[in-house]
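Render this sequence as a predicted structure.
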Amino acid sequence: MPLTLLAALLLAEGPRPPADTVATLDLARLTPGRAALLAGRPVRVSFVPDSRADDVLGVWAVEAAGPPGWLRIVTFAPGEGDEGLGVVAPQVVGGVLVLIRHPAPDEFPAVAELQVREARRVRLP
């Protein structure tokens, strides 16, 4: 009898992410084309903090590491703290991906920015 219960528990489906949530992405390796396709959708990303966390208008924000050419910002949801953001270690969060293209004034290069907004930490088993 205990084995039957154990088997049932192991085979039971756990909570699933919303149907439109994308599998975990590496924010540093996200390409411009893929980012454009996913913009506005819920995503789960892994990232390594590349700046000190800053309280911006009551929410924490941090720059994420990645190759040059794209600014990567993770802005946390209200109530999320800055725990663990002072350590250069991978973090996993869920939020909405936003792609912003800043036009180039004069001779300056254009800037593309990836943001994960309303980010909440994902607790991995």
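Summary. Strands lie at 22-26, 42-47, 54-56, 59-63, 70-76, 91-102, 111-121. The chain has a mean pLDDT of 81.
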